[in-house]
Batch of 2 targets.
Target 1
Amino acid sequence: MRIKFIAGNWKMNRTPAEAAALIDAILPLIKDAQCDAAMCVPAVDLHAARERLRSSKVMLGAQNMHWADQGAYTGELSAAMIKEAGASCVILGHSERRQYFAETDETVSKKTKAALAWGLLPIVCVGESREERLSGQTAPVVTRQTRAALDGLSSGQVSGLVIAYEPVWAIGTGLVATDEQANETIGVIRGVIRDMFSGAADSTRILYGGSMNASNAAGLLSQPEIDGGLIGGASLKAADFAAIVNAAGVSRG
Ligand code: 13P
């Protein structure tokens, strides 16, 4: 059985003081959560967030990192840095990083290996653009991205990590994939993992992300292939994020 996992991706929102206030608003609402939960905050918020999350089971995550342990990479952060600041997971290869910051399948692969080497849980993002979906390229695109990200890993590593299927056309647009579309493409991704690592595919958690909110979460989370959500906008509203986390508890199993 895969325990559901709900992760908030705050993107470039909330200062450290605002992060502390948001976490204080969320925690009482999810104290009975039956799923795993994480908040992936801006790197400068990690310290303040760690203080607030200390007595909870919610994981703290970063949104990116460099693959090198250290060096002349101005403006970048290493796995050791985000880990010491309090992160235990990290989002890698988000479509916004692929689109605006030249992230490639190759850099996502290097970052995934580095995160695992440092004991961080990678949340690896894949997903097709609107044009790719319209031209029938969804399965080949997510297959290529998944293969590239997982190439060279062991099946033990793959069974423990998290993939997030985020169709680019659904991110921040209010256009959510239907329950069936999301379930079908996540099934394709699980098939790729099965092909590469056989049994690991039954353990790897694959989330859906893209305009998931308090109203549509229960339907998506009841699909057999969908193991949770990576939540953008709705993760910044305490009541909405809590509703999604609590919906995941209900549909667990
Ligand atoms: P929205 O939930 O705002 O569409 O963002 C999804 C996302 O990109 C999470 O990583």
Note: Residues 9, 94, 166, 171-172, 209-212, 230-234 surround 1,3-dihydroxyacetonephosphate (CB under 6 Å).
Target 2
Amino acid sequence: MRVVLLGPPGAGKGTHAGIVTETCKIPHISTGDMFRAAIKNGTPVGLEAKSYMDKGELVPDSVVCKMVEERISEADCANGFLLDGFPRTMAQAKALDAALAAKGQKIDLVINLQCSDEVVLGRLTTRRVCRTCGAIYNVNSKPPKVEGVCDVDGGEVYQRSDDTVETITNRLSVYKAQTAELIDYYKGNGVLRDVKADVNKDETASAIRSLL
Ligand code: AMP
Ligand code: ZN
């Protein structure tokens, strides 16, 4: 099963990825997580990505596509994968389709998480993340048991530098200008399913489960 999680920043892609990867037994591929790891490790890709991410802009297609094509060629992706945060432009979607078509493969399901701007803004300004394992918290709805400490592995729970009102607003405009058109693209391919993501987490989770 090859699955794409689509939706604006803050719709819950990272939060709900686990349902898909556990049910389908496929790896979770988050391009944002890959870039954050690259920045932490000081790699050339990390250095290039950082300036874009800090502004809430997209990293150039060529950089992202190469990274994803290499990742999905790894052995653990042979039976499928979940893409979270990729594709984000038409060029990325077409490059992905071409790379898969060359192997006789295609995207089987696109889960489109629908969420209003107000909910996104509220969630992202209060979002906190574990620096070690990526677990997602929220200061209001899901704080860690000990402030600043991850429940799972004791890692540091921090606020992403791009989770500020200014950068979130820009990420939302970028989503509308460059990513939202993928909804029609995948609808045209007959693989898109809409899921309401501005309701409570359990409702969204069960809607996703019923698609799998
Ligand atoms: P995310 O963790 O998915 O919110 O991504 C954080 C940031 O990483 C984005 O705001 C972009 O700057 C960059 N990024 C992640 N995925 C992509 C992508 N598919 N194309 C371009 N930039 C990306
Ligand atoms: Zn953790």
Note: The pocket of adenosine monophosphate (ligand 1) is lined by residues 9, 31-32, 35, 52-53, 56-59, 64, 85-86, 88, 92, 162, 171 (CB under 6 Å).
